[in-house]
User: Fold these one by one.
Assistant:
Number 1:
Amino acid sequence: ETGVTQTPRHLVMGMTNKKSLKCEQHLGHNAMYWYKQSAKKPLELMFVYNFKEQTENNSVPSRFSPECPNSSHLFLHLHTLQPEDSALYLCASSQRTSGGSYEQYFGPGTRLTVT
Amino acid sequence: QQPVQSPQAVILREGEDAVINCSSSKALYSVHWYRQKHGEAPVFLMILLKGGEQKGHEKISASFNEKKQQSSLYLTASQLSYSGTYFCGTQETSGSRLTFGEGTQLTVNP
């Protein structure tokens, strides 16, 4: 399944570093999502973009900054993270968000470790 | 409101059946089911919309009881490939965010 790709797959960063996660979808979808998956916790929605416009920010700290330049690409810029931010970050896409219920297609995730 | 899944974990022998439940205290518009194998991305299984619709996907089917705000995932004659963590995601209104349960870890042994 290569409809949604994410890079890098693994990332180790110090608390003072700045890094970015990249997601690309090849499915022609118009909605993209960032989720955080921590051990023993449910998938946690972070941000939603629909037709390049941010439609959801689930009270995410400002040290996480999303960017959606077009419907196919989504970035998550990271700076001054905390060790508790270590997790698997999943990107997903769907046809859109409004007017119904649409299946989401997930990327393989970026395993982030903050030291 | 996060849905509640039960059981948290289940171990089966190949060929056995299993049922995974997903319950919400809120009225629901839809329920999504996903499966995630270790180290891989969650994979979409099916969506159920309010109306009590039942759906099937090979030997995996699901129902949605709108009155009880509960969905059940049925795995029949389980195969080794069914092993993984099953998540339900619930949507309260059309177009609203998906809220996921904590997952049910399913292990199928030979």
Note: The mean pLDDT of chain A is 93.
Number 2:
Amino acid sequence: DAGVTQSPTHLIKTRGQQVTLRCSPKSGHDTVSWYQQALGQGPQFIFQYYEEEERQRGNFPDRFSGHQFPNYSSELNVNALLLGDSALYLCASSFGDRGNTIYFGEGSWLTVV
Amino acid sequence: AQSVTQPDIHITVSEGASLELRCNYSYGATPYLFWYVQSPGQGLQLLLKYFSGDTLVQGIKGFEAEFKRSQSSFNLRKPSVHWSDAAEYFCAVGANGPGGYQKVTFGTGTKLQVIP
């Protein structure tokens, strides 16, 4: 039973560029959430996708956008990268959109130079 | 809006000693509560969760946590710490946000150091 998988594992981008991160949820899960974890901090909620729609959003600018596909996989896109976007981006999946345990992937390390 | 406070940024314990990591939450109703562990450079692994029922929950790796509504706390405990427990521990609270959809909020984490 595959867990949550994310790609790429590590990447380096230049300020102003755009990045796309990908996530495949755990088998049987249909909800995907994205979190940003800066060094030394706890994960911060970016947004949640369920039934291919963004259901909830945290306090992140519109530069952060996402998508969920019919197979429940998801992408996180960040435009106009800033140095402060450097962080570990975690994808989490769950079954249903409320009241269930979320399971995390290993994350994608993004460094913006 | 819900929030989580982990008052201890860093804790050092001796191997074999007992451990208690503190977590306080703020939420108007009964929340869903979680503890996750993160090793350096890794994702988060679920240790245990509380949704309802028995307020003492058992998790993996010998961890347990107790939900105390009166104190708005969900402290994590382990009777005897192993060197492999050295990691960062995150308490999280899940609650239904606007529109009813679950949102999970994390604390800032407690870094555990285990000394021989």
Note: The mean pLDDT of chain A is 93.
